[in-house]
Specification:
- With 305 residues, the chain is α/β, with parallel strands linked by helices.
- The chain is built from 14 helices and ten strands.
- The strands form two sheets. The chain has a seven-stranded mixed beta sheet with strand order 1-2-3-4-5-6-7, with helices on one face. Strands 8-9-10 form a three-stranded antiparallel beta sheet, with no helix packed on it.
- The termini are far apart.
- The relative contact order is 0.09.
- The mean pLDDT is 86.
């Protein structure tokens, strides 16, 4: 977080009736930016998305920094002190899979902790250099998620939870991919259709996963209105499934559920944003999703009836 940039954004948003919804951070530098954090919380009803990719040495190792976990805890304590709403992001990998239940238990002590968000790795941030070392199979990942869900249900579902595109328990309601029905006229991404992302260097992207490959402008040279209405931003935001020419997807029986997957992940996995999302495709074609869906129906949905 850079105080001058954040203060500039606060001023402009308040002036033009805009709002900052979310701040994504590893919380390691919040000790030096308490004033900015306080300004943000006073000005907007926002959420802090904090990355917690392990505990203790596992976190330090993944971040590549000694005492990084200590700095994380200091940042979490600061946000707790401001009564900020905390959403916790966990990027599952080989170093933290065995700690997943411990991460969940660790976060429960924070009353500001509202949602746990878990995803697999994608080619962004530290994952770019750590992928080959820390990557796990989808089967290992699903197994760990099942253990977590069992504990979470036993605890009475004390927080909201998201697992990628596969599972969401929000506002007291459980959602699976099968609950969403895509058609060829559907937008490729409904999730971020009214949101853009501003990175620390000023770059503005359609979502957090398109940086640095698909940048629509910079707040240092253009207004947010110009960037939001630019042809490049509009093309991404208004992209429909019918605009994609993916032969494997056009006649696939899973298209109504997967909607061709995530455009950002397709881009980050070395393909174009108009290409196939291999991750979600393999979930369906290898039967992994069907097994996970049956588990959620039994352990979460039927348990609530």
């Amino acid at each position: 977080m850079y105080p001058v940039t954040i203060e500039f954004l606060i001023e402009k948003c308040l002036k033009y009736g805009m709002r900052i919804e979310n701040i994504f951070t590893n919380a390691n530098l919040l000790e030096n930016t308490r004033g900015v954090v306080n300004q943000l919380i006073e000005a907007f009803d926002l959420t802090f998305y904090v990355s917690v990719d392990g505990l203790y040495q596992a976190y330090d190792g993944f971040r590549g920094k000694t005492n990084a976990f200590h700095d994380l805890c200091s940042g979490l304590d600061i946000l707790e002190g401001f009564d900020a709403k905390l959403f916790i992001n966990v990027l599952l990998n080989k170093s933290n899979l065995h700690q997943l239940l411990d991460i969940y238990t660790f976060m429960k002590k924070y009353h500001s902790f509202k949602r746990l968000r878990i995803s697999n790795g994608f080619n962004l941030g530290n994952w770019v250099s750590n992928r080959s070392q820390y990557r796990i199979s989808m089967e290992e990942e699903i197994s760990g998620i099942k253990e977590l869900i069992r504990m979470w249900v036993k605890d009475g579902k004390p927080c909201e939870m998201e697992y990628g595109h596969l599972f969401r328990h929000l506002f007291g309601q459980t959602y699976l991919i099968k609950d969403i029905h895509y058609t060829k006229d559907s937008l490729c991404c409904e999730y971020y259709k009214n949101v853009c992302v501003i990175f620390p260097d000023g770059s503005v992207t359609p979502c957090g996963l398109t940086y640095p490959h698909y940048v629509c402008g910079s707040i240092h040279s253009d207004s947010l209105a110009q960037i939001w209405n630019s042809p490049k931003m509009r093309k991404f935001k208004e992209l429909k499934i019918s605009d994609l020419s993916i032969d494997d997807c056009n006649e696939c029986k899973y298209l109504p559920m997967c909607g061709t997957g995530c455009r950002g992940k397709a881009l980050l996995n070395g393909k174009g944003y108009l290409d196939i999302d291999d991750t979600i495709c393999s979930l369906y074609k290898h039967g992994i999703y069907d097994d996970f869906e049956s588990f959620v129906i039994k352990e979460v949905i039927n348990e609530s009836v």
